[in-house]
Amino acid sequence: MRPLLHRRRPFVRALGAGALLAIPGARLLAAVGDAAPDLALQTDAGPLRLADQRGKVVYLDFWASWCGPCKHSFPWMNDMQSRYGAKGLQVLAVNLDAKTADAKRFLSENPAQFKVAFDSAGDSAKRFAIKGMPSSVLIGADGRVLATHAGFRDADREPLEAAIRDALARK
User: 95: Cβ–Cβ under 8 A, 6 or more apart, which residues?
Assistant: First the structure.
């Protein structure tokens, strides 16, 4: 059984509807234990910097409107924000569509009750060396990467939530 959360340096790639493939030797630019790079992002509410989230546990999710598993992850992320937001969790989903209109259409069908940022140039994904979607990075309150994950399946829900609870307990 392959690990769900990647707490070491190997990066994984989402294939199809949530299947995972390890890419030997590949790694995130910000690997587990490293400080997460700061991101300057645009939201509907204005600019947002990842560094401004310090003190919170951040579940950073990279997604696109064409991504099938992303449709399944949004209700779960809504639930996580609702359950753990008051305890210090901030879900931040970064859309990587070339056209923001595609993202807005997706959001009209899959409403987000968490912060959504738009990065049509894909600069934020490059900073984390994202290779497939959805991909997520769990960042501790100290700004360090705690875990990475690629894909999203129903079986991922419980272990991902456990990682969030563990991160909040360390806060």
Answer: 63, 64, 65, 103, 106, 116, 117, 118, 119
Can you tell me the distance from the alpha carbon of 23 to that of 118, in angstroms, rounded to the nearest whole number?
A: 27
| pLDDT tens-digit series, residues 74-92 | 999 999 999 999 999 999 9
Distances in Å between the alpha carbon of 60 and those of 1, 2, 57, 93, 128?
25, 22, 9, 6, 10
- Could you tell me which of 127, 145, 132, 118 has the C-alpha nearest to residue 58? 145
pTM of the model: 0.84
Nearest in space to 128 (alpha carbons), one of 8, 1, 34: 34
Counting runs of H as helices and runs of E as strands, what totals does the chain give? 4, 9
